[in-house]
Design goal:
Shape: flat
Low-confidence stretches: none
Number of helices: 5
Helix content: 55-70%
Structural class: mainly alpha
Distance between the termini: 27 Å
Number of strands: 2
Strand content: 5-15%
Strand order of the largest sheet: 1-2
């Protein structure tokens, strides 16, 4: 699994960092995820959520890059939602910008953008399936 491969690679990362080569643990995790994402894509059809996968696989023509967003947030109160969303979105945007030099959430980075708050999760699934059928 992705998490097992990352964890396994972290023991390698700890050895790398002991040599003081200037690579941070966060960078090593990104490089490991990058390698694993490419390996998964080479093996066949897969779904990768986040992890800058749209950028990592940008050279491939056999990928459908989808951005799903919503104004609703589950498992928190209406009052908490704006602060939680702002914090999470800022962290995502910073991570994406740091590793890709692109703006997170920009429609131009994706083949398809869907509002799950409007069409729901099942609606997103159906829309993605329809787009895949059209592009095969």
């Amino acid at each position: 699994s992705l998490l097992f491969n990352i964890a396994s690679s972290l023991s390698f990362a700890n050895n790398v960092f002991s040599t003081n080569n200037g690579v941070t643990l966060q960078d090593e995790i990104y490089f490991t995820q990058n390698r694993i994402i490419k390996e998964l894509a080479d093996k066949g059809p897969c779904v990768i959520v986040g992890r800058c996968a749209d950028y990592i696989l940008r050279e491939r023509e056999d990928c459908l890059n989808v951005f799903i967003f919503a104004e609703k947030y589950f498992n928190i109160t209406r009052e908490e939602a704006p602060a939680v969303l702002k914090k999470k979105d800022k962290a995502r945007a910073n991570h994406y910008k740091y590793y890709t030099d692109q703006e997170w959430g920009m429609a131009s980075n994706y083949d398809l953008c869907l509002n799950s708050g409007l069409i729901g999760i099942e609606g997103c699934v159906k829309a993605i399936q329809q787009v895949l059928e059209l592009t095969e």
